[in-house]
Structure formats: structure tokens, C-alpha cells
Design goal:
Length: 174
């Protein structure tokens, strides 16, 4: 039986993350040390870091990654969405097995646990299968803001119900 583990990304995961992100044709940033530094910041400072992510691993290899920018708030449709989900990618050999869906659900639970109220992302029209990506996110309860679409991308948002609405300074977006 294959064992999968799902966890927050650490600096040791930087090479595996970059290997997966390189499978996105439009992805530019192949700098492993920059990812390692950002993830070290996350290990040290948690949500005060610039970015982080979550991974599914099997046999020590990263097979799905979802990366997040903690401090990129954006106003969309009249409200602030504090967190930006940047990249989701599953290794080509492991697609269509539910890993992407599982990691998105995991990330949303993690954000709820950290009192995050909402999250946004961009689906890029230049990417292969972008209309499939729209359906993928809509299937996970995300809203496409088609009226705000640009030539390059469609914005999508998801409201999150915080798990601990009254908690303190570790919350996102305060
Ligand atoms: C999008 C992606 C992460 C989904 O990962 P996954 O582990 O295969 O996800 P799941 O198995 O949970 O769901 C698969 C479904 O995703 C949907 N999907 C979403 N975006 C897709 C895309 N760009 N290409 C193909 N399928 C996509 C399909 O409907 C697919 O359904 P199918 O298996 O019936 O064909 C994966 O296809 C991928 O890495 N694509 C390349 C990177 C990319 O385009 N990322 C941007 C997403 S906004």
C-alpha cells in the first residue's frame, strides 16, 4: 500500500517544491535558495513570513504542492481577501488521483484553524487547461469573478469560516 503524508512545507522541501513548480510552463522562478530562505522564515516566524506552502509526499518525494503568500491582501468585490494561493501542481505521473483536491481541502482547514477569513487565487488564461482549472476550483466552492477578469487571468475567492473566531495575534489578516 502506498503511504502519503500531508504537511506544511519546510526549508528541506525547497528542492522538491521547485521540481514540481518547474512543471508549470509559465513558471519563471527556479531559485531553490530563495524558496529555502522563505521557508526558513516560515519555520522561524510562522505567519509573519512572506510565503509558505503545503505538500503531499510519497516515499520521501513531493507529489503535490500548494504555495501561499501570507501577506498579499487584495480587495475584490468590495472586501479584503488576506491570503493569496499562488501555485498548485501535482507531479505529472500522479495527476487525476485526487491529490490536488485533497491538498486544497487540507489547506483550507489549515487556514480556518489560523482564523483566516478568506483567500483568493488567479487562474491564468495562458495555462493549458485553464477552463478545467476554473471548474476544478468551482467544484471546491470557489467563486469566479468573471466581471473582474483581465486579458491574463480570472480572480477566484473563497470565504473561510474561522475555526476559532475569537483568538488573538496569530490570526491572519490582523
Ligand atoms: C490542476 C492540478 C494541480 C490538479 O491536480 P490533481 O492531483 O490531478 O487533482 P485531482 O486529481 O484532485 O483532480 C483532477 C481534476 O482536476 C481538473 N483540472 C484542473 N485544472 C486542470 C488542468 N490545468 N489540467 C488538467 N486537469 C485539470 C480536471 O478536471 C481533473 O479531473 P479529471 O481527473 O477527471 O480529468 C494538476 O492538473 C496540475 O498540476 N496541473 C498543472 C499545473 C496547473 O495547471 N496548475 C494551475 C491550477 S490553477
Amino acid at each position: 500500500m502506498v503511504n502519503y503524508s500531508t504537511h506544511a512545507a519546510t526549508s528541506a522541501d525547497a528542492p522538491g517544491i521547485v521540481r514540481l513548480l518547474a512543471q508549470i510552463p509559465t513558471w519563471q522562478e527556479s531559485n531553490v535558495s530563495r524558496w529555502r530562505e522563505d521557508l526558513e522564515q516560515y519555520e522561524q516566524y510562522g505567519l509573519r513570513a512572506r510565503r509558505g506552502g503545503w505538500l503531499i509526499e510519497s516515499g520521501g518525494a513531493a507529489i503535490t504542492v500548494l504555495t501561499v503568500e501570507w501577506k498579499s491582501p487584495r480587495t475584490i468585490a468590495g472586501r479584503i481577501w488576506p491570503v493569496y494561493l499562488e501555485y498548485l501542481v501535482t507531479d505529472e505521473k500522479h495527476r487525476s488521483s485526487g491529490h490536488g483536491s485533497r491538498l486544497v481541502r487540507y489547506a483550507v482547514q489549515e487556514l480556518a484553524r489560523r482564523d483566516c477569513r478568506g483567500v483568493y487565487l488567479k487562474v491564468f488564461k495562458g495555462d493549458d487547461g485553464w477552463s478545467g482549472a476554473l471548474r476544478f476550483w468551482e467544484g471546491h466552492g470557489w467563486t469566479a469573478h468573471s466581471r473582474l477578469a483581465t486579458d491574463t487571468h480570472v480572480l477566484m475567492t473563497k470565504e473561510i469560516v474561522p475555526a476559532h473566531p475569537a483568538s488573538g495575534s496569530s490570526a491572519i489578516g490582523r
